[in-house]
């Protein structure tokens, strides 16, 4: 385990931490002296929460990544029918697109299954959108580590998988800023840009559950989840948390979910509160609220769109 922790020091994401810190400071200065009223600015308390949350996520990720790496090595060595050569460019091309597609699938599932959303909502909880937001990551990362199983099964060494994932995380820093507007059309068509990712963090109805890509936006275009930026988004959750406590940021949705499960009247309803979409309610409860006018007839229980109901 100690060796795995020490190996983590060679992770691209860890190497990038000093550069991230410098860029965050530069962005803060740029925002401080900007007169652009369309930008959300920053709050030092929010920065602190994001940074502390990110440090905690690094610890959590190191532990879970070490466990996952050991398990995936067993799959790679004893189950995979072949081993792809690490020194082949074709392996790295396959790895890049494999990680990219699995991240899209995982990210979309995180907005559709409440148990996974309870962790993922941490990243959406800030009402600001700046480079420090990229550091606001969940500590409950078991689902994020579990998605890589297909790649070791197909003969990709697990160490390569986690290295490529770290490259995607580093790229994600670039996407979390309002200081970069729209880029040339061909870049916007192929890659995830700050404009695309601002949409993803928006709580506006037209922006909910859109733009799940990590580096490439092509999966969103293929699977119908792409949305261009029309106006500056309103960031955060549809029901804002309004707390700078990193413990509340991490745990509040798990606590809400546990409360709903305890109060559920049937086992089916208990499963619905855990594995249904965020904001899921039993049909009879939704109908009762709709009848009383407390809920709109256009209820959609997916992703952030229903966070206000939880």
TrEMBL record:
| Designated name of the protein | Sterol desaturase family protein
Cellular compartments annotated: Endomembrane system
Q: Where is this region: Disordered?
A: 282-310
Annotated membrane-spanning segments are 12-31, 51-76, 88-106, 146-174
Ribonucleoprotein found in the keyword field: no
Note the topology in the membrane: Multi-pass membrane protein
The segment(s) forming the Fatty acid hydroxylase domain are: 92-225
Which terms are listed as keywords in the entry? Lipid metabolism, Membrane, Oxidoreductase, Transmembrane, Transmembrane helix
Tell me which stretches of the chain form a coiled coil. Answer: none
């Amino acid at each position: 385990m100690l060796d795995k922790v020490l190996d983590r020091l060679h992770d691209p994401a860890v190497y990038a931490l000093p550069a991230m810190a410098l860029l965050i400071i530069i962005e803060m200065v740029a925002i401080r002296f900007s007169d652009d009223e369309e930008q959300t600015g920053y709050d030092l308390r929010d920065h602190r929460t994001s940074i502390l949350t990110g440090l905690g996520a690094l610890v959590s990720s190191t532990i879970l990544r070490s466990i996952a790496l050991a398990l995936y090595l067993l799959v790679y060595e004893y189950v995979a029918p072949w081993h792809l050569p690490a020194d082949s460019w074709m392996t790295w091309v396959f790895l890049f697109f494999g990680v990219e597609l699995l991240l899209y699938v995982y990210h979309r599932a995180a907005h559709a299954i409440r148990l996974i959303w309870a962790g993922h909502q941490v990243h959406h909880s800030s009402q600001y959108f700046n480079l420090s937001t990229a550091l606001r990551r969940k500590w409950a990362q078991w689902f994020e580590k579990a998605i890589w199983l297909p790649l070791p099964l197909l003969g990709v060494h697990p160490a390569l998988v986690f290295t490529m994932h770290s490259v995607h995380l580093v790229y994600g820093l670039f996407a979390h800023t309002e200081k970069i507007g729209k880029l040339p059309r061909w870049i916007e068509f192929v890659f995830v840009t700050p404009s695309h990712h601002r949409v993803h963090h928006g709580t506006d109805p037209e922006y909910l559950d859109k733009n799940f890509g990590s580096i490439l936006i092509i999966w969103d275009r293929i699977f119908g989840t792409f949305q261009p930026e029309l106006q500056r988004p309103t960031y955060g959750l549809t029901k804002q948390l309004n707390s700078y406590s990193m413990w509340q940021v991490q745990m509040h949705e798990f606590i809400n979910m546990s409360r709903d499960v305890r109060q559920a009247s049937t086992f089916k309803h208990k499963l619905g509160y855990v594995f249904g979409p965020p904001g899921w309610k039993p049909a009879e409860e939704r109908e009762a609220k709709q009848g009383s006018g407390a809920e709109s007839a256009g209820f959609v229980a997916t992703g952030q769109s229903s966070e206000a109901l939880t």
